[in-house]
Here is the input.
Amino acid sequence: MPLLLCGLLLSSLAHAEGAPSVQMHRAGAGTLGADGWTEATSTLGDFSVSLPCLFNDFRMTPTSGDMIMADGLGCPAGAIRLSAVRAHYRDEASASRYFERIATAEKTPGAQLERSTQDGHPAQTLRTETDALCALARTVRAGHSNILLIVEGPRSQCDAIKATAAPFLASLKQGTRDVAAAPANTTLPECPLALELANGPVQSAFNALPHDVREQMEEQKCQPATVMTLMMSRQGICRIGDTTMSMASLMTLKDSGAPLAVTFGAWYGADTDAALKALLESQHTRQPLSVYARLTSITRDVTTVVGQPGGTLLSLTRPSPGSPGVGFSTVSQVAPANLEVVHRDLNTCR
Here is the structure.
């Protein structure tokens, strides 16, 4: 899920307890026309948009809080990512409250907010440009729901993002249908961290994990070229101890397929982060945080870093204080020699 979308949408989950589930209806769906675009219709969200890429169609269901459901469509178009999400709330007052809460993102450095209407509904468009990110996000009020339309990517793609955003935002069509319920969780396997990035076994173990959505993104402008495979599951992908991890990613070298890093994410909570920290430090030797200095950013903090017997590092990171909404606690496995490649700034080699 795109970073800006996580911040805006998950602000609706700020008072929820427990991890939301994700139900994947379709992956890589659609047929591109002669213009390179396809009509994407949400299976349960009763809305549609035009997208310049084959899309995923999913539903997110929190376990509590004011948001009942969030139905989404999304896909990557090269270095740009597009998302359309309809968040359904318990009542119209809650939808209005979160509509205004999203507007507070205007205070973020590099952000500018413009209010308008779309098809007779109140709307607000947030434009954000920082040294690393370029994004355009529109939120449309509609009864008991808010619809979020987001286009984002690296700063170097600003012109393409602005050009893509115009037809994407104008294509929104919405209805007023009711929403339905989501499925229950099942027993999960342990996340395959014991393999310590062994070439071959780690790919097999990663590919065998249960998942509802799977996306693959290539980065060829930076050398060496890499491939990132991202998976999510409504029931969780695997466990680290007693913690359910809902997201997993594997970064490999494009030419050889050798694994560089594997990451697992759980919905952030202070108790979750503390449990993961205690488990990792009880099983492995704690390392100085300075070994992961390149991971420091304005949106992520390092909770702990431990070393495995074979020399790989496990880092636990969490959202920085002040980050909007709810994010992930992530456990990443990487060899020290690969830190520069894994955490490189993609804007420096475009």
Q: What stands out?
A: The radius of gyration is 20 Å. Confidence is low (pLDDT under 50) at residues 1-7, 13-18, 180-186. Residues 282 and 306 are 10 Å apart (CA to CA).
